[in-house]
Amino acid sequence: MSGILVAMQGAVAQGVLWGIMVLGVYITYRLLDIADLTVDGSFALGGCVCAALVINFDLDPLAALLLSMLAGMAAGAVTGILHTVLEIPAILAGILTQISLWSINLRIMSGKSNLPLLKLKTLISSVGDSLGITQAQASILVGVAAAVLIVAVLYWFFGTEIGSALRATGNNEDMIRALGVNVKRMKLLGLMLSNGLVGLSGALVCQHQKYADINMGRGAIVIGLAAIVIGEVLMGRLINFACKLSSVVVGAVIYFLIRALVLRVGLETNDMNLFTAVFVAFSLSVPVLLGKWRARKEYSETGEEDS
Amino acid sequence: MLTITNVRKTFNKGTINEKKALCGLNLHLDPGDFVTVIGGNGAGKSTMLNMIAGVYPIDSGKIEIDGVNISREPEYKRAQYIGRVFQDPMRGTAAGMEIQENLALALRRGRKRGLSWGIKANEKDFYREALTKLGLGLQTRMTSKVGLLSGGQRQALTLLMATLEKPRLLLLDEHTAALDPKTAKKVLELTDEIIKERELTALMVTHNMKDAIQYGNRLIMMHEGRIIYDVAGEEKKNLQVEDLLKKFGEASGGEFANDRMMLAK
């Protein structure tokens, strides 16, 4: 029984840390209406940059987190410039950045595909040691603190003039351009903000699992979509924006709990990508299929008399 | 106020689909002019408005507003001078945002946007008052999403948004064409009221000849990328739909029969 509890604790820790990535995905996918595939690359980038800085330069783990976030923002800027200045479709621009990041990440890790932190101090291990709690508990603590801070900052930012203009860009580009906003700049900003969070999340996950891996970001975008969908289903159509943002992190936690359960039932880690993809495809298609089914059911040739 | 000098625009140049949309267009508007624009399909009415707003770059010529050359300014920069209402009611408002959020975005048209709060508490009374004037009851629904409104309500809201911060020039591109006749009339009357009250300079494209005669102080007719008829003042007031059809016939010759039905609707 305690085995399950430990596994669940690990899943919650992973969920909270990955939840920060999902907040990033939320900005592009839900607010800007762009499916940004940079994420798979920038998540690994965050992890690789963090590991390389801590190992090679003996950098303070907190500073490494911030620099990983900046690295993520730079990746977002590349996609943003490809998309806005060079007018490459957003999905393709993201794929181009993601593919090139694979090479860059290997360079950062000096050609190794895996970089273990071993006994090196991380933010999570220091918190764990100083409070006398387990790694998983320390990860949850750090993750929740980071998530609360980020949700608060995002809530503030998307209420400001620039933040409102960014939301309007995702809502109706023609309209906000006619109201004097440079929509290209807004998209660039959104992509940078989003990938900055993704990079930060990658770095936190790296410090949590104590290694960076070239494949650690594979499928991140799909996990992000799954978490957003779970969050929306669970928390319904909440009006309050702060609740919406929080639901995204909760969605990530639940995703990793489900994942842990499925793994215990007998699926292997290697099966998880298939499982997640099927889950996302299913969740996205349910409303469409329901609509079609309803339309067919309600159709009648003669029509009903209005009473 | 607005001065357009010898503006040319050809779409798909050098291809089989080449279309000369504007052929040396000249137009001058005085402050306070309310000009209605009529013409057949493909006459260049919408293209003219899009060129003024900066949707596409012009091939040659010059567009000035109050002496400032805006010919090469991007669309979002020209927005500081220009308020716009589109034909499609969905295009002028953000459906997923609240009515008051839309108004707050519009109030900041052409202003530098920073990190202060996107909608300030003291603005809300101003919005409530402006919405009350529309007479559609929207002042009680300020936190409703715009997507819940009807096409007519959205178009009236767009009109309010375009004029909330007084524009030097208001561009109306067949903004009542997608509405039912009753709503269209209401929105048109509202347009006239706002233009008069705020003393705006406006260009209004319409397919309805009666409206073109009834509203505004000046009327221009376009054909094949040029202005072929320009009438103002008393002469315009005394125009009849038949006169316009005749004018159009003289200018367009053989194509008259095709366009007559469309224009007379």
How would you describe the overall organization of this protein?
- The complex is a heterodimer of chains A (about 300) and B (about 260).
- Chain A is mainly alpha-helical.
- Chain A has one domain.
- In chain A, about 75% of the residues lie in helices and about 0% in strands.
- Chain A is built from 12 helices and 2 strands, in the order ααααβαααααβααα.
- Chain A has a two-stranded antiparallel ribbon.
- In chain A, helix 1 runs antiparallel to helix 9, helix 1 crosses helix 11 and helix 10 crosses helix 11.
- The model of chain A has no long low-confidence stretch (mean pLDDT about 90).
- Chain B is globular.
- With about 260 residues, chain B is an alpha/beta fold.
- Chain B has a 6-stranded mixed beta sheet, sandwiched between helices. Chain B has a 4-stranded antiparallel beta sheet with strand order 2-1-4-5, with helices on one face.
- In chain B, helix 3 runs parallel beside helix 5 and helix 5 packs parallel to helix 6.
- The model of chain B has no long low-confidence stretch (mean pLDDT about 90).
- The chains are: A mainly alpha (about 300), B alpha/beta (about 260).
- The interface between A and B is medium-sized, with 22 and 33 residues.
- Chain A: Pfam families: BPD_transp_2.
- Chain A: It comes from Enterocloster hominis.
- Chain A: Keywords: Cell membrane, Membrane, Transmembrane, Transmembrane helix.
